[in-house]
Amino acid sequence: MNRIIWSWFLGSLVILAAITVVSIWGMYDNGFLFEYYWISESEHLISGFALAMFYSSLVRASAKGIFVWTAIWGLIWEWFEYILSHSPFLLAILNNILLVDNYLTSWPDTILDILLNFAGAILFILIIKKRG
Q1: Which of 84, 94, 101, 87 is nearest to 30 (CA)?
Q2: What is the residue extent of each domain of the chain?
């Protein structure tokens, strides 16, 4: 039976929660995420890393397994984000909840976000391999 690595589990949850707070705050508070685009891209890199850490904390998996699991979740999230920004009905709901009126993603942005998620997972895998 696998033992949970609690430091990785809790650390990954804290990182993912912080990213969520910054994302919501960044869209709501005058949209600073749109002005400082590098913050959003950094979040995608860090979230790939945190997702890989989360999965690794729960399951003893190979590097390939860690990458595939992280990639699947990254792809699901980016697909959701793209659909959300291109659906007038869903966009209206988001606008009413967060008072955001300029949330729109493009294919190049979506592809970059996916690649950054992958890079975050690879970075985590390289770090844990180096640790042995």
Answers
A1: 101
A2: 6-127
